[in-house]
Amino acid sequence: EKDAQAMNEMKEVAEDEFSKLRTPWKWAIRKRIWDLMEEKDIALFPRPVHHRIPNFKGADEAAARLVTLPEFKTASYVKVNPDTPQRPVRHLVLQQGKTLHTPQPRLRTGFFSTINMSTLPSLVKIEQCTNSKGVVKYGTPVTLNDKYTVDLVVVGSTAVCPETGARVGKGEGFAELEWGILSLQGNLDAETTLVVTTVHDEQVVDDMKEGVELTKHDVPVDIIVTPTRIIRVPNRKPKPSGVMWDLLSPQKLDSIRVLQQLKREIEEKSGVKLPTGPNEVLPPVASRKN
């Protein structure tokens, strides 16, 4: 009884915290999935998975299934998120001779890096290039105004809807910001560029279908790949294009250098001041002890 009371008190505190953040409904789903993955022991290091893109048992199998997609086979330039569960995807991108395009850690101070094994010394192994240290050491930094075309985007998710492709990440909004910048700069086509996610089967949820309003910057996925199946989303929500400056809080803008640069460049070129979004409480980040 004491345990149940303690759990209820924790739940009330969490709900109170989530209510202060943007889109509280997403936080309810995140917490449910994070708790479930820990309880069912389907989570992998780094743990606990709360406030992360959760790593999961079967991430290798999901990655192996992803590379069977015809759209992966024809892609030569693949953007993959930097989180742990997509490390096997990054490995296979490089192993198959493709160019890996990945954000520098947390996007706070850097932007993106690219890696292609054909340009590195032969002694460098693929596994040395697939974590954040390897990206910094072996990657070629990409600047805001470089010209290139992303053929395929792979994102991590906390939960995803198999009907509409709606997804929730860890709550920091990096996937959306990266998509916004790349589409604005002409590095990807928001209409045609495919978005794929790899997740555990337990992260595929059916309670995001109705009554859920995605914000206009949310990027839905086209294909969901789990360790056991490939789901092609039948009724995908529309994808956004460009940066939604009117949704970008001063707090978020202050924390990401490349957005400040982009805003400055646009305002100098156009002579018009861009709008600013409402203030927000930035979400907590995962403990870095793991």
Automatic annotation (TrEMBL):
<dbReference type="InterPro" id="IPR037171">
    <property type="entry name" value="NagB/RpiA_transferase-like"/>
</dbReference>
<feature type="region of interest" description="Disordered">
    <location>
        <begin position="268"/>
        <end position="290"/>
    </location>
</feature>
<protein>
    <recommendedName>
        <fullName>Methenyltetrahydrofolate synthase domain-containing protein</fullName>
    </recommendedName>
</protein>
<dbReference type="InterPro" id="IPR024185">
    <property type="entry name" value="FTHF_cligase-like_sf"/>
</dbReference>
<dbReference type="GO" id="GO:0005737">
    <property type="term" value="C:cytoplasm"/>
</dbReference>
<dbReference type="InterPro" id="IPR002698">
    <property type="entry name" value="FTHF_cligase"/>
</dbReference>
<dbReference type="GO" id="GO:0003723">
    <property type="term" value="F:RNA binding"/>
</dbReference>
<keyword id="KW-0694">RNA-binding</keyword>
<dbReference type="Pfam" id="PF01812">
    <property type="entry name" value="5-FTHF_cyc-lig"/>
</dbReference>
